[in-house]
Amino acid sequence: MNIIQNPVPAMHRASSRCPAFVEGILPKINSTTIRVYGQNVGEVVGDVFIKYVKMSRHFFKKHNGWCFNVSTLYDSLNAGARWVELREQEMPQTFRAAIATIFDEGIKDVDEGHGKQLCLPLKDWSRGDEPYGEQQKLWEE
């Protein structure tokens, strides 16, 4: 386990309220930030690329799906991700899909002024706590 140094000074009031800081045992979180044109668009934690989205702004109505800049998918694969998890913030729900599914089933060459993107239709996403279903089988083969 990676340990970070205790950031709380010895006599600071937080030292009595934050035992993990007092002991110096706060684990370091291993994650990789994914960027497009210098902006953070999500992060890879373990084997999941997590991206926070808003349906009113990020949902692509023309193809009824969620789009991804192709470079973000390659960057997340290079960081060890196998899955994408979209955390929709306006009406809190979670969408999940395998990155392989996005490449295989996604609508290719979508370019509406934000670079080349892949769009995975809503029907191909698992929602909430639903199991990954067919997507899980792709990785087990």
How would you describe what is shown here?
The chain is an alpha+beta fold and 141 residues long. The chain has one domain (31-140). It has helices at residues 19-23, 55-58, 70-78, 99-105, 134-140, and strands at 31-36, 39-45, 48-53, 59-60, 65-69, 83-88, 93-98, 107-110, 117-121, 126-127. The strands form two sheets. A six-stranded mixed beta sheet has the order 1-2-3-6-7-10. Strands 4-5-9-8 form a four-stranded antiparallel beta sheet. The chain is globular. The two termini are 32 Å apart.
Termini separation comes to: 32 Å
State the helicity in percent bands: 10-25%
Strand arrangement within the widest β-sheet reads 1-2-3-6-7-10
Shape: globular
Biggest beta sheet attributes = 6 strands, mixed
Q: Determine the strand fraction and express it as a percent band.
A: 25-35%
Give the helix tally: 5
- Give Rg in angstroms: 19 Å
Number of domains: 1
